Amino acid sequence: MTLAVVTLAAGKGSRMKSDLPKVLHPLAGQPMLAHVLASASQLGQAQQHVVIGHGAEKVQQQITTFDVSWAMQTEQKGTGHAVAQAMPDVDPQATVLVLYGDVPLIRTETLQKLLDETHCDKGIGGLALLTVELDDPTGYGRIVRDGAGNIQEIVEHKDASAEQHKIHEVNTGILAVSAELLNEWLPKLSAENAQGEYYLTDIIAMAVDNGVAVRAIHPQDEYEVQGVNDRLQLAELERVFQRQQADELMRQGVSLADPARIDVRGSVKVGSDVRIDVGCVFEGDVELADGVEIGPYCVIKNSVLGAGTQVESHSLIDQAQVAADCTVGPFARLRPGSDLADGAKVGNFCEVKKSVIGKGSKVNHLTYIGDAEIGENANIGAGTITCNYDGVNKFKTEIGDNAFIGSNSSLVAPAKVGAGATVAAGSVITKEVADEELAVARGKQRNVSGWQRPVKK
Ligand code: UD1
Ligand code: CA
User: Is the CB of 189 under 6 A from ligand 1?
Assistant: First the structure.
């Protein structure tokens, strides 16, 4: 059995009040549509089709990491019409799973259960529906069953009788059925209904008429089938999703100071006994080895932190490699290409870019290190600046093992300070300092005795 997933994403999403097509609005840093495609892609060999209309170009431009075949629906004439636009590209032997680009939290396990329910592996199979019981079913298509509990049809809210409005079991829109049956039924849909639309839901009654089995299953979690129409609903699902990720991290052995105050926009791989304080944001692919501790209000993007490393509050780490037992922060910024060896320290109000900080070396206060290579056990004094940029070109600074750079020094790159060398505080270094040398490059102190301060006239 081949599988074709058809995701509907042509709607305008007016209630988002946005220039961005609705399905591109991010949830945990990824477009909602990408979440749907990711869940479907885990079903195995699926051909993915996406029906687009409003903002089609933007959607195609932004959804690049999935192998998708696009179908255009220039006018939104209903869900049945939308699915029909994809059918010419769908393998006629396939089982079709219909999903929605604005229903982002659907789980792969639920979809697999739904597909199993079609029994398409044993021939043409039946129709499987995902339904839920809602306390307030207003607005939804109702699942109409006969006295024996067999599904008869779906009636849209606007077409339903007063009696049918009392039904609490509603259609989520997600269904699975063979392409063969869809190709037979979709051309027969009519738009003679309250909304003048070609309703996908009308195929249920056709299935019943044709003696095709219709079965319904429920998702494990109501949020899986919750659609997003406005930013309030998106924010609600964002919190649900973040909480799920937080719970998963805790199950993996991470201590979270508050599972409601962490945001993961990507993936976090963790070792054992990782601790994360409140207000931290993780983006892209982050790895935290055993015993890593992250203080409050840190942002960590696409970085790897080695075992036992501590990041103190308000630090920003982006595309950095931090080895074991390092200390970073508070208020540190590691920019792309920062590479800290074991036991290195980067302290408060320090910025590091594209630089190696060797084993055990310390950059503790108010410093900028850019395009530099620092050896082992060097001490970089407070306020040190690597002057790596002349306004046009970038140059390198090399600092050897055990070097000591006195406070408030400027190292004008290209610069080289040898192993064991010392730079006196307040120096502006423009010439190479050899191993073990002392460089003093500052105005000499002159004391004037009997000096009178100016007085007011
Ligand atoms: C649909 C179902 C309803 C179900 C509800 C669940 C139909 C006729 N009704 O109603 O039974 O309870 O979803 O939320 O299917 N779309 C297109 N092209 C179109 C029309 C819709 O791409 O021409 C997309 C929309 O962007 C949206 C989704 O399909 O993401 C659902 O469409 P919408 O019009 O909101 O359907 P509902 O009226 O909510
Ligand atoms: Ca809807």
Answer: no
